Amino acid sequence: MALAFDEFGRPFIILREQEKKSRLRGLDAQKSNIASAKAVARILRTSLGPKGMDKMLQSPDGDVTITNDGATILEQMDVDNQIAKLMVELSRSQDYEIGDGTTGVVVMAGALLEQAEKLLERGIHPIRVAEGYEMASRIAFDHLERISTKFEFSADNIEPLVRTCMTTLSSKIVNRCKRALAEIAVKAVLAVADLERKDVNLDLIKVEGKVGGKLEDTELIYGIVVDKDMSHPQMPKRIEDAKIAILTCPFEPPKPKTKHKVDIDTVEKFQTLREQEQKYFDEMVQKCKDVGATLVICQWGFDDEANHLLMHRNLPAVRWVGGVELELIAIATGGRIVPRFQELSPEKLGKAGLVREKSFGTTKDRMLYIEKCANSRAVTIFIRGDSFNETIRCGTGNKMMIEETKRSLHDALCVARNLIRNNSIVYGGGSAEIACSIAVETAADRHPGVEQYAIRSFADALDAVPLALAENSGLSPIDTLTAVKAQQVKDNNPHCGIDCNDVGTNDMKEQNVFETLIGKQQQILLATQVVKMILKIDDVISPSEY
Ligand code: ADP
């Protein structure tokens, strides 16, 4: 910055805009971008697979998260490099579209870039590399379709679905309870699914967690669980055939507003005011009773006096229930949310066969279960936490476990949903990637142009997933991969993958390790798109740091 004066002596400031920027061009730009993306992929690589490592992330305000979910790790990592942010976006897109395979997609993108770097160094133009990758990705995409199989299940035979969800959960911290959790996830998805239209609305599944208990106590409730209790301890803890008024308007005597002046200078006046207030509230309670409500669920609170009155008038109530929960309660019970008290009418009441308050262990915690609802399509998965690691037992271990269980269940729910939408599957454990790698490699020979190098590199990059799986399981990566690849070619069996859990067979079909076809295809497409985008950047202009 410099201060200068014009011919009339007026001062002005010269900002040297150009000089403040650093600039990288050509190969340097690509190399630097590739290096940043690879750094992100390297972090996730060790988390891939059933034996993948977990990451511990601490937020600026001290919250600790332990997870091995790719999207979550990247979400919480505070990256400020633009290319690294693209990788975060990549994982997020996979999470958004598919919900699973978030680590794999980043590992794949990292490998593609690593291979691309070698090609660039050999003097191949980035556009050629991008085009070759595009061709290869289409070959891989189609090959996946070819090796995919239909996955048969029905509402009566949920076992195959459960097994697939177990594969997803096997690489998570919660894998000890994978069978139980997978069953819960599948039942929840089937409860809200419309099998004819092949549609699943995951919004109808509420995932609630409470610290304490054991992970095994996690349960599926055909109804809604709200982290609230009856407003008064003497209200009934169990209401059968409840008729529920769902209110978003205040449910208490009107409070004198400050802009009006009320002079209360005698005891009598105070008494009258009080009586008026009580009468008003009494009428509200009466109105609820008149329409037939046996339980009132309010978005707002009411004070102790109102609470006491409700208890006396024998009208149980729940206060401070959040908007999202109110909506779910309304959907589940077939009731209508009432925004103005005057609008309360019998047909707007929600109906539930049983509303009960449940307390937990020695804590004061209580939760409200709304079950046997009129519309049984809303369900709740209620997670109980347990400490997964002795060292964290005394700290916030339980809370973290619940959060991680929620994330893992989200993956399992997504897998079940994807299968209901489209029941094609490919086998996991890197077998699909190896099969695609072989197919792409063979296809490269048919391309006479420079692209063939890029296509071959794409085939090598596909090996990154099985390599990482082998490495993370403590196997010798190259030896294992070569053996499995040779076996695939010899037996013409695309189901051979990495035997991460040392089961004794590397046939993933026997091991029941599946992934959804759309998930795997999406991984390849997204990874290729991001890599192409990064390769096409040949000029990086950024503000230089002071
Ligand atoms: P992502 O976030 O990408 O889903 P995961 O850590 O869940 O990553 O790992 C998924 C990978 O692990 C997939 O390639 C899957 O096929 C593989 N995998 C999962 N379970 C097994 C298993 N029991 N044996 C071999 N591979 C497995």
UniProtKB/TrEMBL annotation:
Pfam families: Cpn60_TCP1. The keyword Chaperone applies. It comes from Eragrostis curvula (weeping love grass). Heterooligomeric complex of about 850 to 900 kDa that forms two stacked rings, 12 to 16 nm in diameter. Keywords: ATP-binding, Chaperone, Cytoplasm, Nucleotide-binding. It is found in: Cytoplasm. The keyword Translocase does not apply. InterPro entries: Chap_CCT_epsi, Chaperone_TCP-1, Chaperonin_TCP-1_CS, Cpn60/GroEL/TCP-1, GroEL-like_apical_dom_sf, GROEL-like_equatorial_sf, TCP-1-like_intermed_sf, TCP-1_chaperonin. CDD domains: TCP1_epsilon. Molecular chaperone; assists the folding of proteins upon ATP hydrolysis. Known to play a role, in vitro, in the folding of actin and tubulin. This is T-complex protein 1 subunit epsilon. Belongs to the TCP-1 chaperonin family. GO terms for cellular component: chaperonin-containing T-complex. One of its GO terms (molecular function) is ATP hydrolysis activity.
